[in-house]
Amino acid sequence: MRSVRAVLDDLPAPLRAEAEAWAAQEAAHHGAHQRFNRILVARRPSLGRIDGWARRTFAWLDRRSTRFGLAYAAGFEMLAFMAARWVDRRSSTLFRGAEPVPTTLFLWHLAEEVEHKAVAFDVLRATGGRRVALAAGMAAAMVVMAWFTVLGTVAGLAASSRLWRPSAHGRMLCWSFGFLFELLPALAGALVRGHHPSDMADPYWLPVWLQSYDPVTHTMPEWSMDVVAR
User: Fold this and answer.
1) Of 77, 81, 126, 130, which residue has the fewest beta carbons closer than 10 angstroms?
2) pTM metric for this prediction
């Protein structure tokens, strides 16, 4: 957010408006995650160490140059969009038996990534960022996402007494390899000259579900298997 806001004055008017809206939306997004993380850490104090590592990691990233920040933002947004597209087709399998409230938050997070998939990329390109910068941003974002996903998953499995269950690790490995099998070719395609995030097909269900957002109560309908079926 800070990297994008730092270059707002250098952007043409239409893109500047989109970038300002993106930064405001991401600020609200960040606040929701912070509140959720505080609840998790209060209930599982062991997660406090991972949360602290994450804060220090992003503080270190924030001290890099604005150019790197823009590349990281563009790379991370592209990864998040691809994750949303992968999850969209597997919601009924991935979340079978899941708690509805955290599942709703997770899916809301992914649905949000779909609607602004190109803004950070456009800001990077408008400020002179090249494909090599995007590749570096993608690589950094992938490492950060993968590392903290693994840490969070291990902590979650341990807290639910499932860390030593082969079936749990089998499912995680299948999902991980399936995601990488779809992700890596898409990332390679995103680095081809002339490619734009708008060229990538949106998922079907998540954008439709996002239309259920209630602007009065600022809430989404609680996720359930019935919602996916409809």
Assistant:
1) 130
2) 0.86
Q: Are 100 and 221 a contacting pair, CB within 8 Å?
A: no
Closest by Cα among 54, 176, 33 to 108: 33
Q: What is the pLDDT, as a whole number, of residue 141?
A: 93
Give yes or no for a contact between 144 and 57, defined as CB atoms under 8 angstroms apart: yes
- For the chain, the maximum distance between any two Cα atoms, rounded to a whole number of angstroms, is 55
CA atoms of 166 and 177, how far apart (whole Å):
16
What are 60-90's pLDDT values in tens digits?
A: 998 889 999 999 999 999 888 888 888 888 8
Does residue 219 sit in helix, strand or coil? strand
CB 34 within 8 Å of CB 101:
no
- Kind plus residue range of the DSSP H or E element containing 127: none
Question: How far apart, in Å, are the Cα atoms of 36 and each of 42, 51, 75?
Answer: 10, 12, 24
Tokens read off for 191: 């680095």
d(C-alpha 81, C-alpha 49), whole Å: 28
Dihedral sign computed on CA atoms, order 73, 214, 212, 221: positive
DSSP3 helix / strand / coil % (the chain, rounded to 5): 75, 0, 25
Give alpha helix (H) positions in 89-99. Answer: 91-94
Decide: helix, strand or coil at residue 214: strand
List CB contacts of 111: < 8 A, sequence separation 6 or more. 84, 206, 207, 209, 210
